[in-house]
Amino acid sequence: MEKSDEKLDRVINLLRNTKPLLGSTVDIEREVINEISKKHQNRLVISDIIDFLFGWAYIGWVRRSLITASVLLVVFFVWQQGIIIKQINYLSSQPVIVESEARSYLTDFSGNKMMLFKLFGNKLPAQNVTISKKQMDTLLESVNDLQTKYKDLIDLIEEDPELKKYIENKLTELNRTKIKL
Amino acid sequence: MNRQPLKLIVLMILLIVVSCDEPETVVTNIVHADGTITRKIEMRSLQNKFDMEGLQVPFDDTWTITDSIEVSEKGDTTWVKRAGKLFRTVDEINHSYKLDSGANKSIIRSTGFEKRFRWFNTDYRFAEIIDKKMEFGYPLADFLNKEELGFFYSPESIKEVYQNGPDSLKFRVFGDTINYKTDLWMSKSLVSEWIGIFSKLTKSKAGDDLSLQSLKAREDEFVNTLTRNEQNFDSLWSGGIMLRELIGEQNALKFKTEADSAINIVTNKLLLDFKEYSVRIIMPGKLTGTNGYKDSSEVLLWPVKSDFFLTDSYEMWAESKVPNTWSWIVSGLFLLFVLTGLVIRIKRKG
Q1: What number of CA atoms fall less than 13 Å from residue B130's CA on the CB side?
Q2: pLDDT tens digits, residue range B315-324?
Q3: A105:B157 CB<8 A
């Protein structure tokens, strides 16, 4: 065991004392210089790209044009968004209907239509007049309502002789204004 | 006094045949960003009767049609017919309107679609248009102000909400004012239309007293005579009394045929055979403008009634915007580029 330990120590000492042979120092020098210059080149490429991209910043008319274009773009954006917000706000203020009402609001008993029926009643072609169930219901409800109101009104007039006389006078006046047949 | 019940009584007497088989129809236009339109028609009826001749909006076998039955809690049965079709362009819809042989074939309907590129957004506009029936009628805007016009065109449900709400009295008076003004509008338009058509028919034969200008100058007088005698207008007209009052005895005798033809044309225009329905539009992107009424999910709704397109074209329109994501990115990059350039310049200068 002691012998092998001695042998190992001797080999280590021998290796420590043996200097490496520098056969190609020129190659080593070149490698080092290349590594250094590579780093320098990289820095140059980034700088070139920046110069290439933003070189316009040093040309007055290009710089001014691009700034103007940017400002116009921002102004256009603000203006457009402003209009949209205004329109949306206006729409939000409008009344909202319930979806189910899409089908239920069709009750076209407008006043002027009644006037036309009165004027041209006999010109309505038979079997061409159609009304919906809802319209029919409204009509019947209105007739009932009118009958009740009419009865109340007649009672009221009958009970008051002055009112009766006044209404009779008004009706006579109204008839006078019409064309005499 | 509430005039509506009285009017309803008159209507009831005048109604010769009453039919309750008209389906309640809703047309939905789903507008897509590429300009195609999915059109859906939903018809509900208390009878299983959907005659093509009686339908408000045209559709044919090329549509996908489904039938179903709905029974309410009360046990009422409703037959529902649904039809849907994808249209490549509005021209296809317009073509189908031209070929319409349904209940509303007498009115001229069309649709329009516009798509405009606006850099940050693309604007869309879709419209359903019904041409006006009267040539010489007065625009409704001459009689109603903006607020009244809004009320006039609004769905009945909205009117009811106003008229039964906290300001009910105000809105009931408002409604009566509108009724009065629209009566006047209708009378004036009727007379104006009759004058226009009558003067066209008598152009070469009549003297100066029957020229368009002379008749127009007497328009208010005609309107007064008409409104004074609206209850028995029919008998006065057919007896020739009304015409004699308006244009004199000699002219009334000479141009009776023309006057009758003119009144018939006007009558046909006013009492046109039209069945109501409603239109809905769903736009792509964010809704930015419309003259319709929207629900909570931004689906737009319009009632379509015959009064709406008598003297003015009735246009149901909607506008929306869809943001162009790529243009936002391009603009952002451009601004960043310019800003960076300026920062670099300032730094190097410093």
Answers
A1: 25
A2: 999 999 999 9
A3: yes
Domain identity same for B67 and B215: no
| pLDDT digit string, tens, across residues B54-83 | 889 999 899 999 999 998 888 888 899 999
CA-based nearest distance A29→chain B, Å? 36
Looking at the fold, whether B212 and B291 belong to one and the same domain comes out as no
Rounded Cα gap, residues B161 and B157, in angstroms: 6
Give the residue from A76, A120, A156 with the most B CB atoms within 10 Å of its CB, the best one to mutate.
A120
Among the partner-chain residues B10, B185, B295, the one whose CB lies closest to the CB of A114 is B10
- Does residue B334 belong to any structural domain of this protein? no
Does a structural domain hold residue B203?
yes
Which ipTM was obtained for this model?
A: 0.76
Residue B147 lies in a domain: no
Query: What's this model's pTM, rounded to 2 decimal places?
Result: 0.75
Q: How far is B225 from chain A (nearest CA, A)?
A: 8
Q: Which of A56, A91, A129 sits opposite B17 (nearest CB)?
A: A129
The residue length of chain B stands at: 350
Q: How far is CA B336 from CA A47, A91, A111, B326, B332, in A?
A: 19, 35, 63, 15, 6
Neighbours of B224 (CB within 10 A): 13
Most B CBs within 10 A among A48, A66, A84, A97, hence the mutation to make, goes to: A97
Domain span at B125: 19-133+273-326
Q: Using an 8 Å Cβ cutoff, are B106 and B52 in contact?
A: no
Residue B91 C-alpha, separation from nearest chain A C-alpha, in angstroms: 26
